[in-house]
Amino acid sequence: MSASELADLAEEEEQRKRRAPWGVIALVLLTGLALIRNGSGEFDVGPPQPATAAAADSRVPGAFSGSAAPLSFAEPERVRIPAIQVDAPVMPVGLDTEGWVGAPPPEDPNLAGWFTGAVSPGEKGTAVVVGHVDNKMGPAVFYGLGALKKGNRVEVSRKDGKTAIFEIYGIEVFEKNNFPGDRVYGSKGTPELRVITCGGGFSKQSGYAGNVVAFARLVEVR
Question: Which tops the pLDDT comparison, 90 or 36?
Fold first, then answer.
């Protein structure tokens, strides 16, 4: 193995150590991002839920003919999902003092969060963008996430001036007590994105029963 290859491996290992274990992130999404409505009865209809036909095919390889080459690190600035009229700024979110991912402030309904413990959108690996489904005033940034279909696109503007464009290849809702962390967060060796919010059934006592997850892969860079 050449000196340059050894240096690349050392850099990847250092980045891995700086990032939170995926198991931690999975637990976060089971608790810290279980964002609940206020139970006031204001919302007669809950957020849309993914159709069975929209489930990600686990047999689909990470690389395919329409994939784009990985980008270098750059923080995301904005996320757009035209199919559900999402156009929102992105703020960095990390782990709070208790070890949970800090979600964006709930009082701002049009704000998404990029988890800094994972890769940036467009880098090799799985980037994670989270957001509220609603707040006490009504629907929030990712309220419509469950309505996405395979082939819809997610555009992420980055601070390096590039826009990473991801194509949805699956959209599913998972129960909090059976969240498949490895499947959701595991790297496929190519640039991928997960967009996550709350979903499933809702109760005043325990909030939402699950998390809606959009699976997407990088297909274009502008």
Answer: 90
